[in-house]
Structure prediction request, 734 residues.
Amino acid sequence: MSGTVTLSQLPRRRRLVNTLTRLIVALGGAGVIAAIALIFFYLVWVVAPVFSAAHIEPGPQYPLPAGDTLLITTNETDEVGFRITRSGDASFFGISGTEKATARVSERSVSLGRSLGRVIEVAGNNGMYAIVDTEGSLTVVQASYPVDFEEDQRIMQPSLEYVFEDEWLEMGRGSVLDVYYGDFEVLIAELDGRKLVLHQFRDAEPGFALEMPRRGRLTLDTEYERVLFGPRGQWLYLLGSDGAVEILDIARPKAPKSLYIGRLAPETQAVTAIEPLLGRYSLLVADDAGLVTQWFVVRDEFGYEFKAARQFELDSPAVKLVPEPRRKGFGAVDAAGHFHLFYTTSQRSLASDDLVTRDVIFASIAPRSDLLLTAASDGTVQSYHLDNEHPEISWSTLWSKVWYEGYTEPVYSWQSSSADNDFEPKFSLTPLLFGTLKAAFYAMAFAVPVAIMGAIYTAFFMAPSMRRLVKPGIEIMAALPTVILGFLAGLWLAPIIEANLSAVLSIILVLPAGVMLFAWLWSRIPDNITRRFDGWYGLLVLPVLLLTIWTAFAIGPWLEIQFFGGDSKAWFLENWGLSYDQRNALVVGLAMGLAVIPTIFSIAEDAIYGVPTHLINGSLALGATPWQTLIRVVMLTASPGIFSAVMIGLGRAVGETMIVLMATGNTPIMDLNIFEGMRTFAANIAVELPESEVGSTHYRILFLAALVLFLITFLFNTLAEIVRQQLRNRYGNL
Prediction:
């Protein structure tokens, strides 16, 4: 008597085991789903602040003695504010209302004892300030902020120290000048109409213990009203009030050379403000039409040009431009008393707010870009808190071409750090996405044919005794650490391919030709002999494979001479424009293909071997040949499993880290050239995350890359499951 046994009819022990098994399986599945969801939400939580909006909030006011403010700034930690007035008085005040602990300031004011004409802020430790007094002498002072403790309270004791003073300025109080302070030199440009004098000081060590100056003099063709040094003191910008600009190359101060002459605004528009951006590669130019334009020097094959890269619109003309001291952002004070916050690289208008006091004679942004200070004519200093952590990121900077300083055109680029503090961070994810897909494409192009053909032969044609040896042997390759494959690919395989490129490329033709020749010869042998080796062809063809590979390497030098003129790498570069890098996509495709083959082979072989025997026997009994049975019955029935194998292998290739890290040049370039390297999401995260500052833009962008990689694999797996289910519904009833 037959029938269905219900759970209640089972013995008590069996019911308990079944219940516990169901519970454990359910909890395990729920745990996996919960873990994946937590990973996803954690990545989103880390990345979300990158896209948060900026805010400007008014802070405390600091009543200081009345005076015409020439400079206002803060120390490195935004704890102490510092102001210099035209009368020569320097005032210090403690910054309050911020999240940072603020020390008490012991000294409130210091008098320089002279009337000042202008103050030029130059780079240096704790801030250095070049001061020109009304008598035409140049003085450089340094603000220092030593810390003392009194009853566990931090006390700042700011002071000013004269570090350089001389009265040799030639043109007197009517001239304008700029100062460049480098590690081993100080350059001073003095301009009076059409007269330009360059003063150069040199020293063996950083500081102002300098030798006598060397001077270069030049009479200009045009009268200019302002002079600014360019990056590293190599250029000089000469600016006129009507928008005229001339750029001089002063690498040799005694013999300046003109690089560019042009205009920063049309003749119908008046220039209202000009300020250099961080690094001085760019100039910010505001005009009376309410536009702020970023200009920078571009060098091409025809020489130098000064190009307008991007513009920012304001409702009213900007009267003051306030560059950030450590980023490529800036603020603008317009004629209506509004303050606007912008960032050049991302071309974002970040925030805007009304100023508390519209009588602004000077404004500056603190070194950490979280504080704005404005000075009014009555001596009042107003502070504003800037919540602006990640201005350099936008959807366009992540996925579109961006015109970076010095580039001839907009490009995709990833460069997160540099030895130069003035560099422009480049966070385009497009090259990383391209590199990830490129590496996966070449790996799958090598792995899929080999793995699937091997699975077909092993499951359908191979002798059972041989299959019991081959299948576990290939599957155990999946346990081989990928770092070993990456090490061998980078240090052993890559030099071999570079030295024998012609031979390696000839394998693509020689290997199939050798196998086909062997198959043709084998077909000429009598059946009574070949039948004895049924299922063992894989073992017989192994010497043929080794022989054809040896033949390819043997004829490689001859091919190099006959077809590539003795240098295949140079031939590809000259004729096809393909440059060659030793660690390239070809090496990655071979190495990562070897890592992916076991996974695809194992799953595909199980799917083919699992096709019901009655389907195969029925097809053969109806007169179909083994090949017809394979194509019309076995492959269709096993297609869901084969497709799953390919998609799992693709997921493995997309997320591979160590092989692409060690076997490529890790250069984030976008080139389908098989002889060039790439940088993938996984490799980029592995290389840069340990060195990134927690909470920084770089740190969060790396998590964004991880999130994108997560979504890519999720998308691939979802599409694979949909296709697999359709294949199962279509062919599962065979």
In short: The chain is about 40% helix and 30% strand. The first helix runs from residue 12 to 47. Residues 204-212 have pLDDT under 50 and may be disordered.
